[in-house]
Write a structure and sequence with these properties.
6 helices; 191 residues; mainly alpha; single chain
C-alpha cells in the first residue's frame, strides 16, 4: 500500500492565524470608526432640523439609530458602548455648554435599558422605543440636578410620549436596515 499523504501544509507554507486575527481586529476597528462617525454626523445634522412647537432642544434621536444597530450587529455590547461614548463626548464638545450632562445622562440610562432589553431577547423596535423613553428620563433627571428643581417634572408626560414615538421610529428604521446590513456584514448577531 502506498503511504498516506498528510493534508497538512509544511510549517513554512501554513497560514499564519495571528495574521487572520489582526485583519479581523482591523476590520472591527474600521467598522467602529465608520459607525461612530456616522452617529456623530447624524447628531450634528439633526441639530439643523427644526422641530416647531416641541420642547426646546428636542431631537428625533437619529444618532441613536447607529447605537441600536451596533448593539444588534457586534458580538459584544462594548462595541456599541464605544460608539456611543465617542458620539456623546465629541457631540457635546461640538455643542458646548452643558450638553455633556444632558446627553451623557440620557445616553447612559438609555443604553442600560437597551442592553437589558437586548439581553432579554426583546426585538429591536421595542428595544429602541424603551431606549427613547429612558433617554428622555435620563435627561430630565440631569435637568433636575443641574437646575436643582423638580419643576421640570411637568415635562415628564410629554417627554415620555416623545421618547416613545422617536424610539419607535428609530426602531422601525433599524428593523428595516438590520437585514440589509447583515447581508453585507458577515458575523452578525441575532436580532
Amino acid at each position: 500500500f502506498p503511504a498516506r499523504r498528510s493534508h497538512r501544509l509544511p510549517a513554512s507554507q501554513a497560514p499564519d492565524r495571528s495574521e487572520g486575527r489582526a485583519v479581523s481586529r482591523a476590520r472591527h476597528i474600521v467598522r467602529l470608526g465608520i459607525l461612530a462617525a456616522l452617529a456623530l454626523a447624524l447628531s450634528f445634522a439633526e441639530s439643523f432640523l427644526p422641530l416647531p412647537g416641541i420642547f426646546p432642544g428636542a431631537k428625533l434621536g437619529l444618532a441613536n439609530l447607529v447605537t441600536v444597530l451596533a448593539l444588534y450587529l457586534f458580538p459584544s455590547w462594548r462595541s456599541a458602548a464605544a460608539i456611543l461614548f465617542v458620539r456623546v463626548l465629541l457631540g457635546a464638545g461640538f455643542a458646548g455648554g452643558g450638553a455633556l450632562w444632558y446627553s451623557g445622562a440620557g445616553a447612559i440610562l438609555s443604553f442600560a435599558v437597551m442592553c437589558l432589553c437586548y439581553r432579554m431577547g426583546v426585538g429591536v423596535t421595542v428595544t429602541s422605543a424603551a431606549g427613547g423613553v429612558a433617554h428622555n428620563v435620563g435627561q430630565l433627571l440631569a435637568a433636575m440636578l443641574v437646575l436643582r428643581s423638580s419643576a421640570v417634572l411637568a415635562w415628564l408626560p410629554f417627554l415620555l410620549a416623545a421618547g416613545f414615538v422617536a424610539g419607535l421610529a428609530v426602531g422601525l428604521s433599524a428593523a428595516v436596515l438590520l437585514p440589509v446590513i447583515r447581508a453585507n456584514w458577515g458575523g452578525a448577531r441575532r436580532g
